[in-house]
Each structure stands twice: as structure tokens, then as C-alpha cells.
Amino acid sequence: VSEDPRCRQCIEDRAVGLAIREAIGRVHGDYGLACCSISFTVKYLNAYTGTVLLRCRKDSHRLLCSALPFVRQLESRNQRYPCALNTLHVGGTIRTCQKFLIQYNRRQLLMLLQNCTNEDERRCIQKSLLSCSLKAEQSHSGDEEDDGTE
């Protein structure tokens, strides 16, 4: 969540990962940072919608979730942008998190559809609604067995 529209254009997964790691270090110290850093990654970032999919080990997801409210800014290209991170869903696999994101985006599009002011906007949002689906698995590397925290 960010009030500054420039933040969404400049956001990068590396900047999000660094901000979250710093917050974990401030809140939980070296122990929490070590626990969370073992397999922590930013798996998906959509700067337009402000959605981030984070992956961590199952045993450290509570440390990660408890540190997210302490991320207050993102730094990108020597600029600092105020922001806030909200947990929408915690899932056991990347695939369940992807399914949740599809349903969440559909709900958001339906809310936009209700607020349309003209027919062109309505057609564009309806087209987006119809295109919401989960694509075939991109790799068989075992990501579907990984823990996913969003």
C-alpha cells in the first residue's frame, strides 16, 4: 500500500526483499534474520497492483509475518517511498497462493466494474475478468511443494 504513485513504477523485488530483511533484523535480531533468510525469496511482484508473493520456510513464517508491519518505506534508485505491507493470505504452497491471488484479483476487478463511468472502461475490465486464470506450471522444480507466504 502506497500513496505515492511513483513508488509503484520504481518498485523492484530486490528493494522489497531488502526492506523486509531489514525489518526482520530490527524486530527479531540476528536469530530471526538467520531463521528467515534460509530460503526467503520474493517470488512474484506486481508493482501495478501492489501485490507481492513471498516465500519462506514453514517454521519461520510467523517471524516473517510479524515483521511485515514494520516495513514503512522502500528504497529504490536512491529514493525512499513510504509504504505499508498487509498480509492477505498465508498458504502452504506457491500454487495455493497463486490461486488465492487469482480470486483476490477477480474480486478487485468486480469492485472496479461496479464503479465504471463509461462503456470503454466496462469492456476493458470485463476482458480482464475473463482472462483471470492460472497458467500451466512453468517448471517442475518442486516449487509447488515450497511454502509460500504472501
Automatic annotation (TrEMBL):
Question: Could you tell me one molecular function GO term of this UniProt entry?
Answer: ribonuclease P RNA binding
Superkingdom of the source?
Eukaryota
Keyword Transmembrane helix part of the UniProt annotation: no
GO biological process, alphabetically ordered: rRNA processing; tRNA 5'-leader removal
**Residues spanning the signal sequence:** none
Keyword Membrane attributed: no
GO CC annotations? nucleus; ribonuclease P complex
Q: Predominant location of this chain?
A: nucleus
From the record, give the transmembrane residue ranges: none
Swiss-Prot/TrEMBL keywords? Nucleus, rRNA processing, tRNA processing
Q: Where in the cell is it found?
A: Nucleus
The record's similarity note reads: Belongs to the eukaryotic/archaeal RNase P protein component 2 family.
Q: What is this protein called?
A: Ribonuclease P/MRP protein subunit POP5
- Species in which this protein is naturally found: Oreotrochilus melanogaster
Question: Lineage from the top down?
Answer: Eukaryota, Metazoa, Chordata, Craniata, Vertebrata
